[in-house]
């Protein structure tokens, strides 16, 4: 949707003239990067994680002289993690003549926005959208990630379940959305290929407040392990209501979407022992000490799921502009496709369709005090 279509012709014309007159003054010395993600709704903490990473990277880059003599400027745009808002936000970015986006955060909104960015020459790097459908079969030039895909994360989770947990009866649940269902399907496929029975494979409705029916099914089936593909609000309710309804000796596991400190307030003590696949804890790398300090100096936490991947996305944009020698998103994208970039998540490079050639997911224990520890 073109946002300007809601303006009267006169107002639109005046706005366009005013924009053309003001743009050189407001932005002549800056390069704008939009953050597209949830800043309202139940998933705002994921947007905050990404914003912390982008803001920290921009501050470090600007303190070092900026890019091609210009400073980086952050523009934050809310999509609520809603797929229908993806194209709306993307068109706003295009209309505002912003050439670079870190985001979108959630896979559904990302998938909905990518055609606009690729068609209009905006470079988008998502630090968090893991669904394969973001890039599969699209032949995009302008869409990249700084995180692995669900078909990397799902097999990593399944291998851990097979090798470490060795359950007898498994349930695989999902929230019926692009991200959750995609990763749940990958886990189910690999478990069944290894001969582990998936007794229940079922979708739940995101946003519901009562999951008693599915908990009853878990109890009746004698399930001893549950994998849930989705986000923390639903995972937290499943944990809490399962505990309240006598679902005993059952361990839960989920992807990075459940790895949010807000899950503790929902699940209470039932969250203890939840297993979560997350990007490796890049704060433990000694080479990142200065970056971790930069986060801490601003009272930000660098150890969340997406702070470092968002930092890496911002750094990749900056290095791409430097490498291309010009502030031209298409040329920056060409440079990044052809070159590697050193970032706090490692030296990264992309395949032809914009996915990272390599990415590491680890398994963590989640604790009732909100901390996490590497499963060893």
From TrEMBL:
It comes from the Bacteria. Keywords: Amino-acid transport, Signal, Transport. Residues 1-28 form the signal peptide. Transmembrane segments: none annotated. The keyword Transcription does not apply. GO terms for biological process: amino acid transport. Residues 30-353 form the Leucine-binding protein domain. Belongs to the leucine-binding protein family. This is L-leucine-binding protein /L-isoleucine-binding protein /L-valine-binding protein.
